[in-house]
Every structure is written in structure tokens, then in C-alpha cells.
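pasting for the record
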Amino acid sequence: MQLDFTTREGRRQQGQLIQQAAEDIGLSLEALAKEISCSRALIYQYVSGATLAQPDRIQQIALRTGKSLPYFYGSEDGVSSGGREQLAALQSLLTAQSGPADFPGALITCEQIISLAQKMGDVPAEANARLRQITTLMHLGEIGRALAAIEQSEPFFCAKQLSAHLRATEQNRGHALFALGRVEEAELCFQHLIQQGNWEARWQGLVSLAGLAEHRGEYRQALSYLEETLTLKDVSPSARAGEILHLYVRGNIANVYLACGDFRLASAEAQTAETLALQQSNQDQYLEAMLTHGVCERWEGSLPSSRRLLEGAARWARLSGDKEREAIATAELGRTLVEMGRLEEGRT
């Protein structure tokens, strides 16, 4: 049964499914509303068909009642004529959960997409959701679960001959092992990437090896890896790909100089990375470069500039939902304010 949400009757049918799901686990509509932080009035609007429940709200209800997402769209098994629409709705939701980032929600959506895509035999949808599941677990710091997801997904990628997904999986495995302190194993992953001969895998593997060298305090070696990476820009498969490489390498060079205490060179590289990030509309790298630049300006004694940059970084991180970088920017801003003699502001 495919529900037509353009009509009140179709919306009411979904509302009845919501009510039935609540009743199946012994919840009243009022209790369900409370548990998903929704008003009673809104729940009753769903049930009556006056208002269509949005995908993120349906996701909350599905999680609480133990029902599958396809259930609320009129298909218990997800393979009805509405299956494609349901899958598209989930993919749209997953995209929305990228900005601002909602990693717990994205993880649930990935699991739903994988399940539905398997039933529909949609290999690209399943593959992309599996890869997103792995990266989401990494963002959440669930390293053990990320490695388990890698082990589960790799045979699927191999069977379907998805070479790009396999390379991304190897990269994620290396970063997961590094996070667990298994540095030598991580290094083998990145070297394996480089040996595959693929241009993208080569530059990403080299940048990752530079990160390992920086972690060990081998700054000269880290810069050597990054300089080698820069030479690949001239043989990039497209101008856009070369621009992306250039941005990430400049940002990493700035971090290496910062780590070894050369704040003048770190500041110069961070400014270059800021400019490149703006040109490419890369919010993540722009934020990273602003943080590095702001810290360098403080060490160089340019406190007003440091304050401006770190306030901007904190604001960008807050707007994008990047709580980790917001905390870092706020802490660094506090140090700058203290050095400026603004002790009260620095404490807050």
C-alpha cells in the first residue's frame, strides 16, 4: 500500500500507523509525544492527517516503537512500489543530517538505508550507506564499532568490485588503527593505499603518513611526505581534484609547522589554506585553517588578530554543529583573552 501524502487521507493513514505502533508497545499517544519531545497537539495532528510527520520525526517514532521506517510509509517489507520513494526519503534525510552534523541520527538513517537497499537490491545505495556508516562511527569516536563495520562491509565491496569504496575503507581502517594507538598497523594501511597506483589513493595515503610522522615528532619526514604529495597536483585527473589536494596539503603543512613551533611559517600556510578553502567553499578546511591561524597569531603576539580569528572559528563551528572544534576554538580564545588582560572574559 503506497500512501499519498498530498492528500489528507494519505496523511491520516500514516497517522493511524503511528497510533498503532504506539499501542503495540503499550504507549498512549500522549506518552509517545513526551518521549520524542513532541507536543500532544502535534501528535494528534499527525493522527488526524492535518499535518504530515516529517522524516526526522518518523525516525524518532520508529526508533522508540521498534518499527521499521518502511512501516510508516505503508510497506512492511520495503519492497512495494513505494520502496524507491522511501529510499529516496531516507537518502534525503541523511543528506540533511550533514549540516549541521547529526551523527547519532545519521547512524540510524544509514542502518535503515542499508536494510531497505538490501531488500531492493540497490547496490549503490547500500554501498554508499555502508561507507557513510563507517565514517559516522569514526566521527562519533566509536572506533571499535567502525572497525567491525569495516570488516562487515569489505566483503560486500569486494564482491561488487567497488574499488573506490575499498580504497576509502582502507583509509578509514588506517585512521581507526591510528586512533587505537596501533601506529605500525595504520602505517601499513596507508602504504598499501599508496601502492595501489590510484592517484587519489596515493595522495591521501601520503598525507596520512605525514600525520603519523607528525605524531611521532618526525617533522622533517612529515614535510617530506607533504612536499611529495604536492608534486601530484601536476598530474591530477582534473583541475578540481588538484585544487582539493592543494588545499588539504597546505592545511597539513600549517599543522606540522605549528607542532614544531615555527609559528611564522605555520601562519603563512594557514592563511593560504584559508584562501583556498574560501575559493572551494570548503567549510571544514576553512574552519581548521582559521583555528591554526588564530593560535599562531597569539604566539606571534598579534592578540587582536588572534581574538578575531578564534571568535570567528568558534562562531563557524557553532553554526555548523561541530562541537569538538567549537570547544577547541573557545578554549584557545580564552587563552588569548587572558593574555590580553581580559581575565573575566577569558574565564567564561
